[in-house]
Specification:
Layout (H helix, E strand, L loop, with lengths): L9 H20 L7 E4 L9 E3 L6 E4 L8 E4 L2 H5 L8 E4 L5 E6 L7 E8 L12 E7 L2 E8 L6 E8 L5 E10 L3 E2 L1 E7 L11 E10 L19 E2 L5 E5 L16 H4 L1 E5 L4 E5 L10 E7 L13 E5 L2 E2 L14 E4 L10 E6 L11 E9 L3 H18 L14 E4 L14 H16 L14 E4 H4 L3 H14 L5
Parallel strand pairs: 1-3, 14-15
Antiparallel strand pairs: 1-13, 2-3, 4-5, 5-12, 6-11, 7-10, 7-13, 8-9, 8-11, 10-14, 14-24, 16-17, 18-23, 19-22, 19-24, 20-21, 20-23, 25-26
The protein binds 2-acetamido-2-deoxy-beta-D-glucopyranose (NAG) (5 copies).
């Protein structure tokens, strides 16, 4: 906590409180009441722009309120000739700044969220790039390296994570292999009880998700209220089976798999085992988690039984016990610890006294995002956004302030006149005092104008954290009157 005698952070933060109330209300306008936020990146300069996607009925909004950097582009007219959903017709790209972040405010701490980012290049920059590569970070954690090698294909990545604060930031990081860009960013609140392995220190990154018995188009919203995308699985050595009867979800359901996914399944032909490699992007996973969804779809006769072992990469799941799916009721076998193996096989092997082969309705495979720096840095981010909200920081001070090697900060007071508002000179003075105290910088090294510029190396950024923490603690709950 702040130990300076001058208590310099109090005035700026009282403004911040006023400001965050406004932000909450504005944020509410852009969601659909169920808490989804679907951004069409680059759609309209007007922050209020939105439209309803015809095929899903989902409302997409302009990303402008969630980010204040980047450029808006249309994909090339040639690429736009193919019938594409609106969200792929524009992108936001980030030619400047090592790290550019979308910030979602007013999230619910401890709630789980599904976040999906989509990328379609479409030669938006007329450079005919054959490969664009950049990193995605979720808050301060590495999420995934995106490699876009086709100009016509939409790439996406999805994570299921637990919010630790009321802010979630998704950052595009330039790694020197092309200009980062994004077509769409989607965020959906999930139930707290869903995907039990996900917690504050572990997020799941989707590798693949199959509705094993599906023929035809992928299943997603509205069939799946969580808008997960369930793809068909092509394997001719498996027989598809289905029922028209409803498959129920159990009371303490951790996955809420939709009925249309559960009422189809596959079984092996003339074999007592099923072996599957479910990875869509083989190679870079060394640890993964699987969730396998089962339901018996036909009433078994007295002399029939279906019982099998579930192996993931050679490890027996389900407490090493054989598994029997319930009739018309979904249940799941899933890993609670990561499995590592050179190949990513899921095997279902019937027990010797089972008269029927194994069955599989749906399967999901994830890798893990280790959230190593959970609490302390999210407070930093909190404070950064707070300061940004108050003073309209224009440059790249977003997401985790400590990530870029150099932070360039320009503060301009964004508040309209108010008796409580400090003058910019006062703010600059307070910041300077704080910095001088915390970083041993000579005050004359800091510019004395209406703008305060700091050019500091990574390590030194940490030294102003006392000021940041003071802001964070006030914005958390206490309010200025408590001080
Ligand atoms: C993108 O296309 C729309 C119409 O399709 C047009 O109104 C807009 O000016 C274009 N934007 C840019 C940056 O070219
Ligand atoms: C991009 O490709 C198009 C046709 O494929 C070509 O006409 C154009 O000159 C190329 N532009 C660049 C910058 O390579
Ligand atoms: C879980 O989510 C579904 C769909 O979003 C909702 O209908 C249901 O009430 C939720 N259950 C709980 C326990 O929150
Ligand atoms: C998250 O779950 C893992 C095991 O599944 C556990 O080791 C870890 O302590 C949990 N973290 C938190 C913050 O609960
Ligand atoms: C089970 O019993 C039925 C008749 O009730 C018979 O047709 C079938 O062959 C039997 N199946 C097995 C595996 O014994």
């Amino acid at each position: 906590m702040l130990k300076s005698s001058r208590n310099m952070a109090v005035i700026p933060c009282s403004i911040l409180l006023l400001f965050s109330v406004v932000a909450v209300q504005v944020g509410g306008l852009f969601t659909d009441g169920l808490g989804f936020i679907y951004l069409d990146c680059g759609y309209g300069r007007d922050a209020q722009a939105y439209y309803v996607d015809q095929s899903s009925g989902i409302t997409y909004v302009s990303d402008a309120p969630y980010i204040d950097s980047g450029e808006i582009h249309n994909i090339s007219s040639v690429d736009a000739l193919v019938k594409l959903p609106q969200r792929f017709l524009t992108v936001r790209s980030f030619p400047s700044g090592a790290r550019n972040c979308y910030t979602f405010k007013s999230m619910t701490p401890r709630l789980k969220y599904l976040i999906r980012a989509s990328f379609l290049y479409g030669n938006y920059d007329s450079k005919n790039s054959s490969s664009v590569q950049f990193d995605l970070h979720l808050d301060v954690n590495f999420w995934k390296t995106m490699t876009v090698t086709s100009r016509k294909v939409s790439y996406y990545t999805e994570t299921i994570m637990e919010a630790t604060t009321d802010l979630i930031s998704v950052c595009l990081v330039n790694t020197g292999r092309g200009t980062p860009f994004i077509s769409s960013l989607q965020l959906r609140p999930l139930n707290r009880t869903i995907y039990p392995v996900v917690n504050a220190s572990l997020s799941l990154i989707l590798s693949s998700r199959f509705d094993m018995g599906l023929t035809g188009e992928p299943v997603r919203f509205p069939s799946d209220p969580h808008d997960r995308i369930w793809n068909p699985y092509a394997d001719t050595s498996l027989t598809k089976t289905s029922t028209n009867l409803p498959v129920e979800n159990p009371v303490d359901d951790h996955f809420e798999v939709p009925l249309v996914v559960m009422n189809t399944a596959v079984v092996p032909v003339n074999s007592n085992k099923m072996e599957l490699s479910l990875l869509t992007e083989p190679g870079d996973l060394d640890e993964y988690y699987a969730v396998l969804h089962f339901s018996e779809l036909k009433p078994l006769l007295q002399n029939e039984s279906r019982q099998f072992f579930v192996y993931l990469g050679g490890t027996l799941l389900n407490d090493a016990k054989p598994f029997t799916p319930d009739y018309l009721s979904s249940s799941a076998v899933y890993s609670t610890n990561p499995t590592s193996a050179p190949t990513h096989y899921i095997s279902l092997v019937a027990t010797s006294d089972s008269t029927l082969p194994p069955i599989l309705n749906a399967a999901e495979v994830f890798s893990a995002m280790q959230n190593t720096i959970v609490p302390s840095d999210s407070r930093n981010v909190d404070a950064m956004v707070a300061i940004k909200g108050t003073y309209a920081v224009k440059r790249n001070w977003m997401g985790d302030p400590c990530m870029p090697k150099i932070a360039y900060v320009a503060l301009n007071c964004a508040m309209q006149s108010s008796t409580k508002r400090p003058t910019m000179t006062e703010v600059v003075m307070q910041l300077k005092e704080s910095l001088a105290l915390q970083s041993n910088l000579d005050e004359t090294q800091l510019e004395d104008r209406n703008t305060l510029k700091l050019l500091k190396e990574h390590g030194e950024m940490h030294q102003i954290s006392t000021f940041e923490f003071e802001c964070a603690s006030i914005s958390d709950k206490d309010g200025p009157s408590a001080r």
